User: Fold this.
Amino acid sequence: MNQTLLPKTRLDDFIRFLSARQKVIAPVSLGNNQYKFDEVSSLDEISLHYIPTILPPKKYYMPQHETLLKYDVSKGQEMEAVVEVEELVLFGVHTCDLAGIQCLNMVFSDRPKDLHYLIRKNYLTLIGLECNDYCDSYANCAMLRNHLPKGGHDLFFTELADCYYVHVNTHRGDELVEKSGLFDEMNTQAEGELAELRTRKKERFKSEVAIRYQDIPRLFDETFESPVWEDVGNRCLACGNCTNVCPTCYCFDVMDEPDLDLTKGRRIRVWDSCQHEVFAKVAGGESFREERKDRKRHRFNRKFKYPVDRYRRIFCTGCGRCSRTCMAKIDLKETINALMEERE
Amino acid sequence: METVTINHTGYHIKRGKIRGITPLTAMEKMFEIELPGGDALDHDPGQFVEVSLFGVGEAPISICSSPTRRDNFELTVRAAGRLTEALHQLQVGDEVGIRGPFGVGFPIVPLEGNDILLIAGGLGIAPLRSLINFVIDNRRDFGKVDILLGCRDPQSMLFCEELAYWEERIDINFCCSVDRAAPDWAGNIGVITSLIPGVTLDPLKTFSVVCGPPVMYRFVVDELLQKGIPEKQIYLSLERHMKCGLGKCGHCQIHDVYCCQDGPVFSYDVVKQIKGAI
Ligand SMILES: Cc1cc2nc3c(=O)[nH]c(=O)nc-3n(C[C@H](O)[C@H](O)[C@H](O)COP(=O)(O)OP(=O)(O)OC[C@H]3O[C@@H](n4cnc5c(N)ncnc54)[C@H](O)[C@@H]3O)c2cc1C
Ligand code: FES
Assistant:
């Protein structure tokens, strides 16, 4: 891996360089301390100091509405499988969201592979941006060790006093550095500043819940029947906001979208939510996970337990979006704390 | 946004041609389907396919024919909603989309050489018919064969001619019961569980396969355990809402298990570990 430096004064040039080549997506402010990933063409549109965007960057990997097949029934069940792609650079992605993308990559490359996802993902370039401090009190990234970069990016930026410390992680990232001609050589002062920052972060970012990473799955195993789920279920409105904003929720529905002439159309995939009651209903009317507490528990287990068995990884990134967005104020850290108290 | 064509995806459908339609009851029809080029589906009994009609949607349907009967395959469809009702409107010669086969079917290898007790409730006879005909076509490879069937009433009984044939065969013990019937009904009346105590079996040498509506499993499994059949030798087929069949969409998930890929058939010692599965 190579390191290089980008003086702050040249960041705008870099963004303009990128956007002359392809679309650039970055965090932009919506006011009221709310942000979203959107298209930009210069630095002044970007919010470099932002708290997690309303929707995570998964929307570019797994669009809310995506065509899988195009069909034509005028001569029988004719179809063509397609992937909708677009070359994009995602700039300013925090480490929690990089971790989220790594989780999705595992799911969709696990057999049977999902080529719609895998093909699209290679059209995307990822440029990460380090959080030098906590975004807000909802975050629990340190508990999941996602407050530090752990790969999954082409370039990774860390803000220092006058410049950005840039890790070049891939050939694709290196090409951008080379072609832009904007980057300077690494120097010892920057090395020192980065080391200092990381030491400061170590002090600042402490596991937000008093539990070790490796003990988390067992906690969920042991509290499956806990009354905490009853309480959480009673408050849950089953709105599905938590699954929409989650960087690692990928449940979907498949449906057809006919054109007006009804002979042609598209088979599409759209985001779905395990928090809705109909999600697991079968013919005959039987509904598994009928109660909200069952569905809420299912979602927590799908973050902290089941993926550990299947993918050896916890699927919560610590971004805090579910707690931030919940209308019923169901808080992830509070829930885990309650489960831990319960177990004692 | 650019659109790239790909020729290999899990959502690709094969164009199946309907070669025969047999009405079974007021609610169910059986479809015989031919794949392009007369290709075999290459399935195991107990597996399912996703059947689709563009513009309407897709649904998981069990394959009800045995892979030993080559060429075409058969599906029994109950009109239960949008897609299944649209299938009922189709004619011989029409096309349907087919994906699959999917999932893990009934275990054939452990059944061979052993006695088998097959129990179906309602529409559960459709997937089980695939196994029954497989066993019949390889009859000498299996020990004693008992089939128990439970239906709501005589009118909802599927595959009546085949049932009569199974009943006739000297190498199969077939027994059926209905929950309710008119006074002229000569057969058994009562829930399926009432048939189990009457079966003579050597529990350690018997494998049981159960297929039916979710409510049936608890009671049937209790009876089988009472008979002394080990948990590992009882197999159940679990029905869950399914969309992708590929272990991704999450609809069929029970805890960490994906019914579409890890099942739908599971042995009871596994099902027992999955809290709330039955
Ligand atoms: C492994 C498996 C094997 C099956 N085998 C057969 C079979 O051999 N014959 C047969 O007639 N039926 C079978 N079914 C049930 C069949 O899939 C549903 O009846 C069908 O999906 C309903 O689709 P629809 O569009 O007609 O109904 P809809 O209009 O979509 O809905 C009607 C009802 O069916 C439920 N439902 C919808 N989609 C599904 C789904 N994908 N899976 C389960 N329930 C659903 C809905 O919640 C609703 O209660 C099987 C289901 C599974 C999971
Ligand atoms: S049907 Fe989609 S995960 Fe099983």
Notes: Chain B touches chain A through 49 residues (CB under 8 Å). Residues 125-137 of chain B form the longest helix (13 residues). The mean pLDDT of chain B is 93. The two ends of chain B are 46 Å apart (CA to CA).
